[in-house]
Design brief:
Elements: H1 2-10, E1 13-17, E2 38-43, E3 54-58, H2 61-76
Parallel strand pairs: 1-2, 2-3
């Protein structure tokens, strides 16, 4: 977990797939992100994400990951 926390602290984008963000210790990794980190959750559940500022792609990973990739390409591609 220590290595994972170091990686998450340094990431620009965090993508969490298939979890309610309630199962620890992995769920705690979301708190290691910087405030500038873009956070995405891909999961079929209906969650209240509150202060964590996740952009929730609600649905199956098979369906929603391609949508997320398209969004990232459109929103963050280099000029």
């Amino acid at each position: 977990m220590t290595d994972a926390e170091i990686l998450v602290r340094e990431c620009d984008i965090l993508i969490v797939v298939g979890t309610s963000l309630n199962v620890y210790p992995a769920a705690g990794l979301r708190y290691a992100c910087s405030n500038q980190c873009l956070k995405f959750l891909v999961d079929p559940g209906n969650f209240q994400l509150g202060e964590q500022q996740f952009d929730h792609f609600q649905g199956s990973a098979t369906e929603k990951i391609p949508e997320l990739v398209d969004k990232l390409i459109q929103d963050y591609k280099s000029p």
